[in-house]
Specification:
The chain is mostly loops. It is about 5% helix and about 0% strand. The chain contains one helix and no strands.
């Protein structure tokens, strides 16, 4: 569960959208991507390839999503955003297990 603010922070694909004319990652030039560039090797964020570094703030289990602070189970159980922890939905009347 991700809130509307954190949807912008989600990871983008390494391959460009060639079939779309106005897509932001298909532009070639100064504002877009470079020609013949391998996006995986020339990435600015090198910590992206260590996906199991972060831990959940609630249950201390490993988090697979980059930029996330909570695991999917804890986020769903508490009704919060995975990345920022903002309350998204009210889970007061939900019947959930204690695990």
């Amino acid at each position: 569960m991700v809130c509307s603010k954190c949807e912008k922070k989600l990871a983008t694909l390494a391959t460009p959208d060639k079939w779309k004319e106005g897509s932001k990652n298909a532009e070639v030039g100064s504002s877009g991507r470079k020609l013949n560039e391998n996006k995986l090797l020339s990435s600015k964020n090198k910590a992206k390839f260590a996906p199991y570094e972060a831990r959940c703030r609630v249950c201390k289990s490993r988090v697979t999503q980059t930029g996330a602070h909570y695991c999917q189970g804890c986020a769903y159980k508490n009704g919060i955003c995975v990345m920022c922890g903002v309350k998204i939905l009210d889970t007061k009347l939900y019947k959930q297990s204690s695990k």
